[in-house]
Amino acid sequence: MVQASFSPSPKELRNVSLCALGELEPDLVIRGDLLDVYTGEVLVDHLVAVKGKWIAWVGPRRSLEGGKSCTFLDLKNYILIPGFVDAHAHLGTYLRPDYFLEASLPTGTTTVVTELIDVAFKLSYDDILRLIEGLSHESINV
Question: What pTM does this model have?
């Protein structure tokens, strides 16, 4: 069965918190211009610090940019934006899931909130679990 991880484990949360406080080195630091999706303003020369698979810190440049074991990705002159969330989808109603994802991923969609009622009447319980398992290997949160 698929075990989705939508929040950090206690150990991950501790490491992300320590990273955000500057007490633990990030695994990845990305530099670029950041789009504030609330104001539309482009914030120039900002950093995104990542610990594990979680974003630990976002903000203007600061003294802590990571140490020797930290990967640094310089995307200066690129605009960093958060992934889009499709908050109401009926995955499998109008398109096969792979076609839906093929159309959604290039637009910046990283998360799809869906239900399986449309396929639930057509598939067995085991088939639904296989569908979810298959989608868990895609580059999107479903």
Answer: 0.69
Tell me: the pLDDT tens digits for 111-124?
Answer: 888 877 777 778 88
Residue spans of the domains in the chain: they are: 10-80, 84-135
The answer to whether the Cα torsion of 67, 73, 74, 78 is positive or negative is: negative
Please tell me which residue, 61 or 53, carries the higher pLDDT value: 53
59-63 contacts at long range (C-beta below 8 A, 24 or more positions apart): 61/31, 62/22
CATH level 3 topology of 10-80: Urease, subunit C; domain 1 (2.30.40)
| Tokens at 129, concatenated | 């679990």
Which pair of tokens denotes residue 70? 């930290």
Pairing of strands 109-114, 84-89: parallel
Per the DSSP assignment, residues forming a β-bridge with 43 are: 34
